[in-house]
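Re: Re: ligand-bound prediction request (bumping)

Still looking for help on this. To restate: I need the protein modeled with manganese (II) ion bound, output as structure tokens. Inputs repeated here so nobody has to scroll up.
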Amino acid sequence: MQALNQYLASALKQARRTRGWSLDTTAANTGVSKAMLGQIERGESSPTLATLWKIASGFDLSFTYFLGPANPEADALEWRPAEQQRPQLAEGEMQVSVRFPYDPKYGFEWFELALPPGYERISEPHNSGVVEHISVRSGEMEVFAQGRWHKLKAGDSLRFAADAEHGYRNLTAQTVQCEDLIYYPGP
Ligand code: MN
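Reply:
Sorry for the wait, this slipped through. Here it is.
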């Protein structure tokens, strides 16, 4: 977590510098308080997953932009062993592991999510043109998109425009494993 905090602190400062945003502007654009942003930049806070998503959306950046650098060595081939993809972040009990971080060459980031029983989250809209692809590996879950909940069982997949309100929930007694591939249109 320490390394993540340090990386996040510098990535946030860099993103603000690139855009010329003050802390006030950043707070207004992300919905994250100026105090929290200051703590993150000083490496004093481990923000929740929800806070990180707000920051990424506010900057029109991918989620993985804030987690670590893209591998500059990897070009034609990138081998990502299972041990390196183990859950890196947890909010409540939701686990997120990164299959592939965002790379502008490819325009997507790809996660595996584990939703514990009773988990429910509604996300703020991503930026215009962002599309999510959910595919359930095990269990049953529901995805909120286009104004209603859609039931998905193992093997089902759903693609939806994620530039509107959307969400995920698990109404069952078993943890759900699913994949989420998020496409970002070009810069
Ligand atoms: Mn989303």
